[in-house]
Design a protein that fits this description.
two-stranded antiparallel sheet; about 70 residues; mainly beta; four-stranded antiparallel beta sheet
């Protein structure tokens, strides 16, 4: 089994959506997502995660959470 580590930032949008970002995002108002975290050029910068994961990450957090996630390739 091969293991890989992913470094990034976890942030939850005001509507509850959870995303893992490669670069550190900032708060913004986006026409598609409403109040959310974002970047000037987001292409490939984030992936959406299941909203039930990481319940400790909240919209009310002042900053996104810096994380290191380990995945296993089986």
């Amino acid at each position: 089994m091969k293991k890989e580590k992913i470094h990034g930032w976890l942030a939850r949008d005001k509507n509850g959506g959870l995303r893992l970002w490669r670069p550190k995002p900032y708060r913004e108002t986006n026409f598609e997502y409403g109040e959310s975290w974002g970047l000037p050029c987001e292409m490939g910068a984030w992936i959406r995660l299941d909203e039930s994961l990481f319940p400790e990450v909240k919209w009310s957090d002042e900053e996104p959470k810096r994380v290191e996630l380990e995945i296993s390739i089986v």
